Each structure stands twice: as C-alpha cells, then as structure tokens.
C-alpha cells in the first residue's frame, strides 16, 4: 500500500507539472511585451505549482489530495507574483515614456540611455551614466532625479517590492577608485528613490568595473559600461548578485 500511495503522489505532481508546463509553453517563443508578460505570469504559476505539489505530497496524511491542493495554491500564488511584476515593468516603462524591451542586445545600442526589461526573477531599469550624472560627479542631475521620481511613483503602489540599485563603471582608473565611484552613484540614486517617501526595502551596491556590457576598448564601449541598474524583486529569494549574474 505504501508503494501505491507513493506512486499516486508522484502521479499527482506529474499531472500538475504537465498542466502548468503546457500553459507556460503556449507563447514561449514570442518576444513581444504582451507575450513576455504572459510567460512571466505562467512561469510563476509553474514554479509555484511544482513547489506546492511537492510540499503538499510530502506532508503526512492524504498525500495525493495534498499534492493537488498544494499545487493549485502554489500555482495561484506564483502566478499572482509574476503578474504583479509584469504590471510593475509595464507601469515603469510607461512612466518613463518607453516600452519593456527584453532584447538581450538592447544594452549594446549606444542610443538607448534607458532600458526597462523583465525576467523570471526581476524587473531591471538600466540608466546610462550620461543621462544620470555629470562627468566625474556622483550626484544625479535634475533631469535624472525627475525620471527616478517617476519610478518611485510606481513603487509607491507596490510597497512589498524589494529595490536594489547597482552602479557600474568602465575600467579607467584603479579598481578601488571605481568601486568608490560606483558605490556613491548607486547610493545616491537609491537615496533619491528612498527620499521620495516610498515604503519599500531598498539597498545599493557598487560593482566597480566588474560585469562590463562590452569590452572597454573604445570610448563608445566605455560609455555603455558606465551605468546604474535598478532591480525590482518580488521577494528575498529572487535577489541576485548583480556584480556577477
């Protein structure tokens, strides 16, 4: 009987996974912003459903029923989180007069000073240093401060979103100098967001010239690498080491 019970639990989990996987795969190859949004919501449902099913099956008593219920609850919660992050990405992009752009090569366009993208783990707003700071300054310009305040307007609607601000430089000068500069720039952007009165948890860090977008072999490429990235996370488990990942 124990073997049969275990088989039923595994079968239940498999059913949940198969159903959710089928949903997540329906538009997996489409790169439009609407389809990307749908994929993120479905991805959250898939992950939540799997975890819920596993946890439900592992609890004592009524394993099969618990697996199905756990999978359904997990899918609902995961899908809800994914949808919320999708909405934040869209609203931030709208406030900044742009669109969500998930093209991995978008950051290599020297004419793109601001890029909003959306992944399975976070929403990222990339700001070029040229549009945020004066040369050799760590203080956001008045224009940049206005743009940052628009991001704060969206965050005010989502107080549970965790905010991480990360600074990057090119490789001119010492690592220590660039570490200090990237720290200061990230901290000042973070303070601009925080001082707008939001309730979100927010933290910042500098990465010096780690994680360049392009080789630091031309003035244009160096300009691409000097940037501040603002990450929005649904929870602590989603946070990445932005200096590496």
TrEMBL record:
Keywords: Cell outer membrane, Membrane, Signal. It is found in: Cell outer membrane. Residues 120-236 form the OmpA-like domain. Residues 1-24 form the signal peptide. GO terms for cellular component: cell outer membrane. It comes from the Bacteria. Gene3D superfamilies: OmpA-like domain. This is OmpA family protein.
């Amino acid at each position: 009987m124990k073997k049969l019970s275990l088989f039923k639990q595994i079968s239940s989990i498999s059913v949940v996974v198969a159903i959710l996987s089928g949903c997540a795969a329906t538009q997996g190859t489409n790169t439009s912003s609407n389809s990307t949004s749908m994929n993120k919501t479905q991805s959250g449902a898939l992950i939540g459903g799997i975890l819920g099913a596993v946890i439900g099956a592992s609890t004592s008593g009524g394993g099969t029923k618990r697996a199905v219920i756990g999978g359904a609850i997990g899918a609902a919660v995961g899908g809800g989180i994914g949808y919320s992050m999708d909405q934040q990405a869209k609203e931030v992009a709208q406030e900044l007069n742009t669109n969500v752009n998930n093209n991995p090569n978008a950051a290599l366009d020297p004419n793109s000073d601001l890029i909003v993208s959306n992944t399975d783990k976070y929403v990222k707003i990339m700001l070029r240093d040229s549009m945020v700071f004066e040369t050799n300054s760590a203080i956001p310009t008045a224009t940049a401060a206005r743009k940052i305040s628009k991001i704060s307007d969206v965050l005010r609607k989502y107080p549970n979103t965790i905010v991480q601000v990360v600074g990057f430089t090119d490789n001119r000068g010492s690592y220590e100098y660039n570490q200090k500069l990237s720290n200061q720039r990230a901290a000042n952007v973070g303070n601009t967001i925080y001082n707008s009165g939001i309730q979100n948890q927010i933290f910042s860090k500098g990465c010096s010239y780690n994680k360049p977008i392009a080789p630091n072999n031309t003035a244009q490429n160096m300009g691409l690498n000097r940037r501040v990235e603002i990450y929005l996370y649904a929870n602590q488990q989603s946070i990445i080491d932005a200096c590496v990942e």
